[in-house]
Design brief:
The protein is an alpha/beta fold. The protein is built from 15 helices and 13 strands. The protein folds into three domains: about 100 residues, Gyrase A, domain 2 (2-Layer Sandwich), CATH 3.30.1360.120; about 140 residues, Four Helix Bundle (Hemerythrin (Met), subunit A); about 150 residues, P-loop containing nucleotide triphosphate hydrolases (Rossmann fold, 3-Layer(aba) Sandwich), CATH 3.40.50.300. The longest helix has 27 residues. The model has no long low-confidence stretch (mean pLDDT about 85).
């Protein structure tokens, strides 16, 4: 993979003041000689003319930087060309790079994959980098940095140290397998290490949903009877006309979604069809069924009511506690004094905006309490959960097989170490590398 020299536009496409083109591989120095008149000093930005290597035509005047391997992002010789961000400039520079021998466009995530292959980062750090590029909120940013800086890898490193200690005790016992006293002492030392590690892994596995909530966001469904102002509330939260609002009941037939940032947490609000008793047409019935499905799938339900509308109550087959919100308080005398929380119910006016800030605070507090969103999580992906669950299973096998031959105990400990190693990519990850790095953007 590292025989080729790769290049890519690392900045966003489209008109911009500056565009960054990244190059990595063994032919970087020759490329800079051909296009930029030489290789700049290591880790220094130099203003250079960038020209076509064949015709000598001037393409642009920009900053050129060289990073000698292994002291670069990929661990290979790297370069960055900071050129003007016009499409013609970018296209001409990329075309010229394509014409140079040994160079080719990079695949998605190929720069980061080379960094992983050179030991510049492990898989947890690489995934943190991908999350940082995609981060929409401050909470996502901090969680991604937690992984990118290697702090989650440090936690996994402590777990690996504990398993290594247990394996060392088991191997020592194998050397003296005929000495029952030695084997007994080894098991006495192995057990507390394994129990403590298993309990810690269980704790982090329970926190898995917290990490996924920060990374992927949560779903909040706005539900209630027709005409209580669900669409109006969605529009007020979105700050735009995301949903059609009329006085006719049943206007909303399908689920309409808006994605918002609430104090660092990504929240997808869903406006749903009104729920009511009695005969309804087939289309409205389908809409109501989708409303119930959205409620079940959401992390929080806002059950909306209004003074002039009969409230059918939260459906009995919905088993989570809904946050009750009374809308249209602007129609009630003295509404300003009654906005906010009152008797376990939040009173708002989607029309005037009264009480909306208090409602958003309540939503964030409720979700933060449920998912404990104070600290970044180690486990933020399905593969992380799978690796921890597999490790726990192997550790359980160690504890359940205390009376088995020490060789079997040592093998289960090695299996636990292997399962844990897949988190950082130290062992057994070839089958998942393509899946991970293919999700990166080009240029990373």
């Amino acid at each position: 993979m590292t025989k080729d020299t790769i290049f890519a536009l690392a900045s966003g496409a489209g008109l911009a003041g500056v565009a960054v083109i990244r190059i990595s591989g063994p032919a970087v120095r020759q490329s800079l000689d051909a296009m930029c008149g030489g290789v700049p000093p290591d880790h220094r930005a130099v203003l250079r003319q960038i020209s076509d290597s064949v015709s000598g035509e001037l393409l642009d005047i920009g900053l050129v930087m060289f990073f000698a391997g292994p002291g670069s992002f990929t661990g290979e010789d790297c370069a960055e060309l900071q050129v003007h961000g016009g499409p013609a400039v970018i296209r001409s520079v990329l075309d010229c790079l394509s014409a140079l021998p040994g160079l080719r466009p990079a695949a998605a995530g190929e720069f980061s994959r080379r960094a992983f292959a050179k030991g510049k980062m492990d898989l947890l750090m690489a995934e943190g980098l991908a999350d940082l590029v995609e981060a929409e909120t401050a909470a996502q940013q901090q969680q991604a940095l937690f992984h990118l800086r290697g702090l989650s890898s440090d936690v996994v490193g402590r777990w690996r140290t504990a398993i290594t200690e247990a394996i060392a005790l088991a191997e020592a016992a194998i050397d003296f397998v005929e000495e029952e006293e030695v084997v007994g002492e080894a098991m006495a030392g192995i057990r507390p290490v394994v129990v403590g590690l298993r309990d810690d892994l269980h704790r982090h596995l329970r926190d898995a949903r917290k990490g996924e909530v920060v990374r992927d966001g949560v779903r909040v469904t706005i539900a209630g009877a027709p005409n209580v102002g669900k669409s109006s509330l969605l529009n007020r939260l979105a700050g735009r006309e995301a949903a059609i609002v009329t006085e006719l009941p049943g206007t909303t037939r399908d689920v309409i979604e808006v994605r918002l940032d609430i104090e660092g947490l990504v929240v997808t609000f869903s406006d749903t069809a009104g729920l009511r008793e009695g005969l309804v047409d087939r289309v409205e019935a389908i809409g109501m069924e989708r409303s119930r499905m959205a409620m079940v799938a959401s992390d929080l339900v806002l059950w909306l009511s209004a003074p002039e509308i009969d409230d059918p109550g939260v459906p009995p087959d919905f088993d989570s506690q809904a946050l009750r919100v009374q809308n249209k308080v602007d129609l009630i005398a003295g509404s300003k004094s009654s906005c906010g929380e009152l008797g376990g119910e939040y009173r708002v006016s989607a029309h005037s905006g009264e009480g909306i800030d208090q409602l958003l605070t309540a939503i964030h507090e409720r979700l933060s309490a449920v998912y404990s969103l104070k600290e970044p999580a180690v486990v933020v992906r399905e593969r992380h959960r799978y690796a921890l669950a597999e490790t726990i299973g192997d550790l359980d096998a160690v504890l359940e097989g205390e009376n088995e031959p020490i060789e079997g105990i040592a093998e289960n400990l090695r299996l636990a170490a292997r399962a844990l190693g897949t988190l950082t990519g130290q062992v057994g990850v070839e089958d998942i590398l393509d899946s991970i790095f293919s999700r990166f953007c080009i240029g990373k």
